[in-house]
Design brief:
Layout: H1 4-10, H2 24-32, H3 46-56, E1 63-65, E2 72-74, E3 92-98, H4 103-114, E4 118-120, E5 123-125, E6 129-133, H5 139-152, E7 157-160, H6 164-174, E8 180-184, H7 189-199, E9 203-206, H8 210-222, E10 228-231, H9 237-252, E11 263-268, H10 271-282, E12 285-290, H11 295-309, E13 322-325, E14 334-338, H12 341-354, E15 358-363, H13 370-375, H14 381-391, H15 393-396, E16 401-403, H16 410-418, E17 422-424, H17 432-440
Parallel strand pairs: 3-6, 3-12, 6-7, 7-8, 8-9, 9-10, 10-11, 11-12, 14-15, 14-16, 16-17
Antiparallel strand pairs: 1-2, 4-5, 13-15
């Protein structure tokens, strides 16, 4: 990415403020941090705009698989290490299904993975894509299976075959949902490029040699296909580590554009697949394909993915709202806490242990914990009163309002502001079960 000074050189330097920033230099800094687009400046000339757009384009091309709300975005990455800025598009997990499955077997397999969902810190984990694998070698069987799979799920699809003839009719049938064509090797690249170009679909290239992969990328681009994913091989963890890292490095440094595309890895199934998948998630893979995956394997992998693709500069936050726990009523107490997800889910879990009905008000503190938010002036009695009034908590319950023990100083002013009884709660949420049971008595 260009620096702020490099962006500034192309700006009109009028400091007009029409971009939303006070000065052109401030706007340049926003551009450098990807918090603004050059279109916001009405006075930059066409030539400069074209140069800026080209230089500021992500070194790893951004592409989309699928359509609608469930479409999966890949690529668009700009850094080698997440602490430099953040990683953009989380690794997608896909399950491979054979085209030789009966209708009943396919429905059971798809249902199994659609039901595999987990919630962690307010985020639902699930499978992102399905791969239809050509085991029959028959174009009509593959097309029929593709149509059947599409009827069972709205998740993005990958059509996998080494034969362009097998893929052709299925790709044409499903082009409106934008599946990924997989894959083109050195022996079939011209035919695969023709299928992808004819149907305006993204194409996966297969090869474990980086130089030859770059040559195939050039062939695909000359053939009119720009949306590419690169499968650099998954023969071993060593190969995944080396190939994925080299491809990412040369792309980000713009020393070689031929590998500046999202990466994918096919890892199979079983314990070895889990190790490969973990490495692939940590080392830049945009798509990991499993032959099978069990729930006890999926949860840790999805947790790993969430940890890596969470912006390290922005805490995970919960929406400001009033949350009912254990069916509270008009006499139930109202507790409140910050919207830092770890705080919220810890407090909620401890309230649930008490099995007492409680209203839990979450106050927007920009993701800060209780003491940090209080010290920063984002968890004052005014903030709490405003949140309680906005959510209608005071109308839903006439019960006592309980402030966290760590910010007991809020109680007096909050009581004055609300005209309601405010109690001081526990210092630690782990003491809430006993506190709430005694409160009920």
């Amino acid at each position: 990415m260009p620096t702020a000074i490099e962006f500034f050189k192309f700006l009109p330097k009028t400091n007009c403020g029409e971009c939303g920033q006070a000065t052109c230099l401030a706007f340049a800094m926003q551009l450098a941090n990807q918090k603004a687009t050059i279109d916001a400046c009405p006075y930059v000339d066409g030539g400069a705009k074209e140069k800026l757009e080209e230089s500021s384009a992500p070194p790893v091309r951004a592409i989309t698989i699928g359509s609608g709300d469930r479409a999966v975005s890949m690529g668009g990455e700009t850094v080698l290490y997440r602490h430099e800025r953040r990683f953009v598009n989380p690794t997608a997990f896909a399950i491979s299904i054979s085209d030789t499955c009966s209708a009943q077997e396919m429905e059971q397999e798809v249902s199994k993975y659609l039901d595999m969902a987990f919630e962690r810190v307010g985020t639902v984990f699930n499978i992102d894509m399905f791969v239809l694998r050509d085991d029959s070698g028959d174009p009509e069987s593959f097309r029929t299976a593709a149509v059947r799979l599409r009827s069972l799920t709205d998740l993005p699809l990958v059509l996998e075959s080494s034969s362009a003839d097998v893929l052709s009719s299925a790709a044409a049938e499903l082009r409106d949902v934008r599946p990924l064509i997989y894959g083109a090797g050195q022996d079939n690249i011209e035919a695969m490029v023709a299928v992808a170009k004819e149907n305006s679909l993204p194409l996966a290239l297969i090869g474990n040699d980086l130089d030859r992969m770059a040559e195939m990328v050039e062939v695909a681009r000359k053939g009119g296909v720009e949306d590419l994913i690169l499968d650099l091989g998954s023969s071993s963890m060593k190969h995944i580590l080396e190939s994925n890292t080299v491809a990412r490095k040369v792309s980000l440094r713009r020393t070689f554009k031929g590998l500046g595309y999202p990466l994918m890895n096919l890892v199979g199934s079983g314990p070895a697949a889990m190790m490969k998948a973990s490495l692939a998630v940590m080392k830049y893979s945009s798509l990991v394909v499993f032959d099978s995956l069990e729930a006890q394997q999926a949860l840790p992998l999805m947790t790993l993915r969430q940890n890596i693709y969470t912006d390290p500069q922005v805490p995970i936050q919960v929406k400001e709202d009033l949350y009912p726990i254990s069916d509270p009523g008009e006499e139930s107490p109202i507790l409140f806490t910050t919207n830092f997800s770890l705080t919220y889910f810890t407090v909620r879990a401890d309230i649930e242990k008490s099995r007492q009905p409680v209203w839990l008000q979450v106050v927007d503190t920009e993701g800060l914990s209780v003491l940090t938010a209080y010290a920063a002036g984002k968890f004052s009695h005014e903030h709490v009163a405003t949140a309680l009034q906005a959510s209608g908590a005071l109308d839903r319950s006439k019960g006592p309002i309980v402030t966290p023990g760590m910010v007991a100083k809020l109680s007096g002013k909050l009581e004055e502001a609300l005209g309601r009884k405010v109690m001081v709660g526990t210092m630690e949420s782990s003491a809430l079960p006993k506190f709430l049971k005694n409160l009920r008595q």
